[in-house]
Write a structure and sequence with these properties.
Elements (H helix, E strand, L loop, with lengths): L28 E4 L6 H4 L1 E4 L5 E3 L15 H23 L8 E10 L6 E10 L5 H14 L1 H8 L10
Antiparallel strand pairs: 1-2, 2-3, 4-5
Helix pairs in contact: 2-3
């Protein structure tokens, strides 16, 4: 029998009092360009700890062969997992069992009609059988305010881009 997986030691009740961003966890993923010298089309993504190591590829809809994971899939997985975690945390705080919660994230890659550039559109669908709809919606709204991916999608994320020495 395996040991239960411990839950993260995060809580909405742990107040943070400060004027600056305070990182709790940091990770680095490096992407190279692969045979096409284009990270999105043929790259490889590797995390600094080695836990993530996968080939990237373009979906058929964007002219690729559909082999490999694409950035939209990675973003959808991250968004769904993060939102699920926030909702699960809030559910536990309200004495609900979050075991039945599932979150599906659909990420669409498309053109921005304002400037012709590219945009992402995200749809999250939460399934939570056995919980009163109004209760689920209330906790989902709270999770939307708590989840860093949802906050990023709504407010943007501070980003720096530098050229390495």
């Amino acid at each position: 029998m395996t040991d239960p997986i411990p839950l993260p030691d995060l809580s909405t009740e742990k107040d943070y009092d400060g004027d600056e961003f305070s990182p709790i966890y940091t990770t680095t993923v490096t992407v190279d360009g692969g045979v096409a010298s284009h990270g999105r089309a043929s790259g490889r993504a590797r995390s600094s700890d080695g836990a993530l190591d996968l080939d990237l590829g373009m979906p058929v809809e964007l002219g690729g062969d559909g082999q490999g994971t694409n950035p939209e899939q990675l973003f959808a997985a991250g968004f769904a997992a993060c939102y699920h975690g926030a909702l699960s945390l809030l559910a536990r705080q309200e004495a609900f069992d979050p075991a039945a919660i599932s979150v599906s994230a659909t990420v669409a890659f498309g053109r921005n009609p304002e400037d012709g550039g590219y945009l992402l559109h995200v749809d999250l669908v939460v399934r939570w059988p056995g919980v009163v709809r109004e209760t689920a919606i209330s906790l989902m709204e709270q999770a939307d305010a708590l989840c860093p991916y949802a906050r990023m999608a709504l407010r943007g994320t501070p980003t720096t881009i530098t050229l390495a020495p």
